[in-house]
Design a protein that fits this description.
heterodimer; A: mainly alpha; two-stranded antiparallel sheet; B: 283 residues; 11 helices; binds adenosine-5'-triphosphate; binds magnesium ion
């Protein structure tokens, strides 16, 4: 009996989608990669490098959606500033890629990126030092978003800022960073951002094999993060997180320092967003301040809402579907996308409060009751 | 003093550095009193919810708090558990824990459990999870992440499930329970936490007569080992469990004593029981 109870209380978690998800994700990724590398371009099963890159981009968005869902769907903290963490991770990668250009830039300066030469700077600013080392840049890609999230979370959660005030603060955070990164004096390439990358770890970024490798790495990391997050959220910590979402004050009265839980979950989520950003930049080939724009952060929330918040799989599905729709839609009517997005959000909020995953759950429940009735009859 | 001496002093073997010392010293109840509330004042926009309130509760006692609506009973519990800051006064748990400079979580970890007037359980989680969350464990972030239920803990939860009569509903979502069952679950959450002091606000509201009786039994059995403070309007219930009753009126203590003493107390008859007594005479 005791064993059974333990098994139930641990096995009852929502982890049942994890294995199928990982298997599907990895097999699709491997098949697509193989189809790109080994099939001739005129084969009907050939997957173009453009498609590979597009898929890689979607997977980065899926990872980002996961980050938003962990904090919003599970802990009830509606962050409208996750784009900031994503962009910071992206900038860290961008700085590394910039320094890999070396003297192949337009101005041929071996040390300074083109935009600094253009601004007539004589030496590298201190925060660019060390960014030519891949490991250091990657460390920064997780450390900077994590640290920012820690400081922000510490201040906000300790003073018990919640709800809409917190959301507004996160918007202000990303907006402030947007304005800062627009400035040339900041040393991040201003308006144009960082681009014209040549290679990563010595591999040509334009080569098919590099693109495929980036795509594969993104998929693997997404799977790893998915599994780890699932583990975390189905531990007792996950239960505390849900408890905080549903009644924070009650959780305090049974002895949990809820502010600390929120800070650490926020940091974890920001680090995931940073990793997603770092994977995104080499695949799309550019990072500019536009990534900080408040509307981006709102879009992420919509992905999660559409897919179904509070389920990791829902966040991934939402990100993939909405971004696929966006690619399709902007090809036909570029200007109308924001309206379509808004309409989607309203519809989902009104009719599918639990998103597509909620709908799936309802349909399954209905089918089960019908089947039960039939078997009784 | 030489450097050597100061180094020796710093590395003394017979004591630990203050920041390494266990934060929670045991509750000191040498004077038999576990809760000291003295000169408590609290006003909401000029309205005095607590007015120079003094209250002492002995270790192991079962104390009933009664008083008309708005007398300040819930507010007193809010102050003790750190939910509300008071304007002036002192609240001590034992002789050594000043509760006024601690937050809700610290106070809970000291061993003060609370049941709310309006039952609040975690509706999206199962009955079992609700109890697991309330267990008396290390509640810091990392230990919580890596914690596993031990067989002893599971047995303990099972036992409590039996006591509160929810053994059959252990995997049911707490939100799907009836009002009375939620009350029981909340009492169960108190029990698994094994607190030293229980503050229970209107436990029998929404319970059937039978359930009320069982609650009375449970609370009386808890007293002795634990200290219990119960707020209740149901006079029948109070009469069945009370040893000492404290009457609150307009934010301060009006009378204190056994149920009989209280019932014959003039002031009390006037302001509280008066209405009931008058109603009784009319009937
Ligand atoms: N946050 C608050 N802001 C303003 N007034 C408050 C607040 N909390 C309580 N009060 C007031 O303080 C008074 C005491 O309230 P309290 O809830 O302690 O009464 P009570 O004795 O628990 O009554 P009941 O038997 O109805 O539960 C009430 O008049 C209430 O309106
Ligand atoms: Mg009350």
């Amino acid at each position: 009996m005791t064993r059974l109870t333990a098994w139930f209380s641990e096995g009852r978690s929502t982890g049942k989608h994890t294995l199928p998800f990982v298997v599907i994700l990895l097999s699709v990724t491997i098949l697509a990669s193989a189809a790109n590398l080994f099939l001739p371009a005129d084969s009907i099963f050939y997957v173009s490098t453009y498609t590979i890159t597009l898929l890689g981009k979607y997977l980065c968005y899926a990872m980002l959606a996961l980050a938003v869902d962990i904090i919003w769907g599970y802990c009830g903290i509606l962050s409208l500033g996750h784009g900031a963490f994503f962009a910071l991770g992206g900038y860290a990668m961008g700085m590394y890629l910039m320094r890999q250009i070396g003297d192949r830039g337009v101005y041929g300066n071996p040390l300074l990126p083109d935009f600094m030469v253009f601004l007539d700077w004589k030496e590298l600013p201190w925060f660019w030092l060390g960014m030519d080392q891949f490991w250091f840049a990657m460390l920064m890609a997780v450390l900077v978003p994590g640290l920012l999230a820690f400081v922000f979370g510490w201040l906000a959660f300790r003073s018990r800022v919640t709800g809409v005030y917190l959301s507004i603060m996160t918007q202000a955070l990303t907006y402030a960073l947007l304005l800062a990164f627009f400035r040339n004096e900041m040393g991040f390439g201003g308006n144009n951002g960082l681009t014209d990358f040549k290679e990563i770890l010595g591999f040509n970024l334009q080569a098919d094999s590099t693109r495929v490798a980036l795509f594969l790495i993104t998929a693997i990391l997404l799977a790893v993060i998915f599994v780890v997050s699932q583990k975390i959220l189905s531990s007792r910590l996950g239960k505390v997180v849900l408890a905080i979402r549903d009644s924070e004050s009650r959780s305090r009265f049974i002895g949990y320092r809820t502010d600390r839980y929120k800070v650490w979950l926020f940091v974890y989520s920001a680090v995931i967003a940073g990793i997603a950003g770092a994977l995104y930049v080499p695949q799309v080939g550019i990072i500019n301040p536009g990534e900080f724009s408040p509307i981006n952060s709102i879009e992420m929330v919509i992905w999660v809402a559409v897919g179904g918040r509070g389920t990791l799989i829902g966040a991934v599905i939402g990100a993939l579907l909405v971004n696929y729709a966006k690619t399709r839609f902007t090809a036909i009517m570029p200007d109308a996308w924001l309206f379509a997005l808004g309409a989607m959000f309203v519809l989902v909020t009104l009719y599918l409060p639990k998103g597509l995953m909620g709908l799936y759950g309802q349909l399954k429940a209905k089918r089960n009751t019908v089947m039960n009735k039939e078997s009784q009859a | 003093m030489s450097t050597l001496d100061s180094t020796r002093e710093f590395f003394r073997r017979d004591q630990v550095w203050p920041f390494l010392a266990p934060e929670q010293a045991a509750v000191n109840v040498d004077n038999q009193v576990i809760l000291y509330v003295e000169g408590l004042n609290l006003s909401f926009d000029g309205f005095k919810a607590l007015n120079n309130l003094n209250l002492y509760v002995n270790d192991g006692e079962l104390r009933c708090l009664i008083g008309a609506n708005g007398a300040g009973k819930t507010t007193l519990m809010d102050v003790i558990t750190g939910k509300t800051q008071c304007d002036s006064g002192t609240v001590f748990f034992g002789q050594n824990h000043n509760l006024l400079n601690k937050d809700e979580a610290e106070i809970a970890q000291l061993g003060i459990g609370r049941k709310f007037q309006k039952p609040t359980v975690f509706e999206e989680q199962t009955v079992f999870d609700n109890l697991e969350l309330s267990l008396k464990t290390d509640k810091r972030v990392l230990p919580t992440l890596f914690s596993r239920l031990t067989p002893t803990q599971i047995d303990h939860i099972d036992e409590v499930l039996k006591t509160i009569g929810l053994a059959k509903h252990r995997f049911m979502l707490a939100g799907a329970l009836s009002h009375g069952q939620k009350q029981w679950l909340e009492i169960g959450m108190l029990l698994v936490a094994e607190p030293r002091l229980l503050l229970i606000d209107e436990p029998v509201a929404g319970m059937t007569a039978q359930e009320t009786e069982r609650t009375a039994e449970l609370l009386t059995s808890l007293a002795g080992e634990r200290t219990v403070i119960v707020v209740e309007h149901d006079m029948e219930f109070v009469r069945s469990i009370a040893r000492t009753v404290t009457v609150l009126h307009q934010g301060s203590v009006l009378a204190e004593g056994t149920m009989d003493q209280i019932q014959s107390n003039k002031d009390v008859i006037e302001v509280y029981l008066g209405e009931e007594a008058a109603a009784g005479e009319q009937a």
